[in-house]
Amino acid sequence: MKNKTIISKQNLFLIVIMIGTILTDQLSKVWVTSNLQLGESIEIIPSFFKITYTQNTGAAWSILEGYMTFFYVVTLVALILLGWYFYRLKEYQIIQKIGVVLMISGTLGNFIDRLLFQYVRDSLDFHILGYNFPIFNVADVLLISGVLFLIIDEVLKFFGVYYKKK
Questions:
Q1: Model's pTM, two decimal places?
Q2: Catalytic: which of 113, 122, 125, 153?
Q3: Which of 25, 113, 125, 140 is catalytic?
Q4: Rounded to a whole number, what is the distance in angstroms from the first to the last CA of the chain?
Q5: Residue 25 catalytic?
């Protein structure tokens, strides 16, 4: 008789990634709110990167500012769809699984803020080639990284550098 486990080693690893990335996001936000006043900055790399504490009641670039109920609904729908997508992935689709886990982590990181504070705590402030990029947070980095993993997976499939088992 084959020994069945409740959760595979791979999925346990992905759960650890999810918990670790959510904790990283939340702890970075706690550090910022504990050490900076709203609007205050610490310059890390002159003329390039600062940590600046801001609060965002909207989405990226503060669009749809103040529509908190909308964000709750969209977030719950996104989490359900991401969970369903993850569930349908096969074990060999590890690049996609990592991408989805990072997207879930980022979504949950900002959702926690919205639930607790009715805004998202942002702090990563870059000035790139004279452009003051919108301030974001670790959860946003996780979301973008997850999307990049999915794109990388598609590029690998396109060029035939893909693996498929059974």
A1: 0.90
A2: 122
A3: 140
A4: 22
A5: no
CA 114/CA 56 separation, integer angstroms: 9
Biggest alpha carbon–alpha carbon distance for the chain: 65
Closest CA to 122 of 132, 110, 130, 111: 110
Look-up: residue for tokens 């790139």? 128
Residue whose C-alpha is closest to residue 65's, from 75, 56, 54, 73: 56
Q: For 44-58, how does the pLDDT look when each residue is reduced to its tens digit (9 = 90+)?
A: 999 999 999 999 987
Distance CA 4, CA 69 (A): 42
Is 122 marked active-site? yes
Cβ pair 14, 97 in contact under 8 A: yes
User: Rounded to whole angstroms, how far apart are CA atoms 52 and 105?
Assistant: 22
CA distance readout (Å), 140 to 93, 123, 128, 150: 23, 11, 18, 16
Could you read off the pLDDT of 51-92 as tens digits, one per residue? 999 999 877 766 777 778 888 999 999 999 999 999 999 988
